[in-house]
Design a protein that fits this description.
Blueprint (H helix, E strand, L loop, with lengths): L14 E3 L1 H4 L4 E3 L6 H4 L4 E4 L4 E3 L4 E10 L9 E9 L1 H7 L6 E5 L10 E2 L4 E4 L14 E6 L14 E3 L3 E4 L4 E7 L3 E8 L7 E4 L7 E5 L4 E4 L2 E2 L6 E2 L8 E4 L2 E7 L9 E4 L2 E5 L2 E3 L1 E4 L1 E2 L3 E7 L10 E8 L10
Parallel strand pairs: 1-11, 12-15
Antiparallel strand pairs: 2-3, 2-26, 3-10, 4-9, 5-6, 5-8, 6-7, 7-10, 13-14, 13-28, 14-27, 16-17, 16-25, 17-22, 18-19, 20-21, 21-22, 23-24, 23-28, 25-27
Length: 326
Amino acid sequence: MPGAPTDGEPVEEAVRIPPGVIERYRRFSRFNSPYPAHDRGRAVDLYPGDGVGRSPVAGVVRDVRTVGCPDRSYAAAEDHLIVVDLTDDWCARAGAPPGTAARILHVIPEVSPGDRVAVGDALGPTTRSGFFGQWVADHVHLGFRPPDADPLRASGSLPVRADVPVEPVEWDGTGPVVERGPTHVVVAGPRRAKSGPDFAALASDEGAPLDGGLTHYAGGGTFAAPDPTGEAARHDRAADGACVSLFGTTVGTRIERPGEPEVGRVEWAPVDVRANGERVVGLSLFADRGERFGVKVVCPDREFAVGESVTLDVVPSDDPIRLGVG
């Protein structure tokens, strides 16, 4: 089966981001990006909310690089890569092999090679990178490379798992617009459970918290839901090929390959997202700490006024919107 290891080939273990790291950020996502590392659950985006790119890892800065970005009128012409050699203690907490390196993007570096950084240290301000869409908020991209890999290359990152529970929020798809940007609006969802975990995400019809660009990016995923007996994260062990649905329509299938780490991948089905009956680009989904859950609707060609009522639905499509890289 594709993705399964051959005899004698080691199985990659997922790097587990400790709860104390994730909880320093306003929101996070593993799949809300068109880039291959996110599509395969091998990176996480951490949204600080205050414009400061704080370190999610502890270690010593190995390298700092500046790279050119795709030309976007709303974005900077350059992006930046910070490579950090992780401490053995951080690796042990995350289940990563000693010698693992972290790759951090979208932060203007105020650190240099040789600097020692701890979790929560300011690395520099976040930057509006041309590598993500105009509706995407500033964030810190985090990935990991094994000890024998070149950390400057974009491919070859380790699988990533976020071990924090995310409350699945059920919603009927109707609510008022509470925020408007140049290419998106946020539609208010229901209030969250007061006794629930810190983070919440839109629930599928099956009760799984959803992650990713539905369905403008080819791949999405699910978060770990709270364990029914407590607040611990419980990763959904749905079978490969199991259907994922939203608002009564199948929107994707689970991808769980034998021999691969469980990362909650979903391959989106060919569907369209509609707002008040007209097609929009899609839904930008992530785990959020807000008291009232909101859904970001990507709609560069539609205008909705703040306070206007919007009803979302999903329908099968012969020509679904898919946004590529670049």
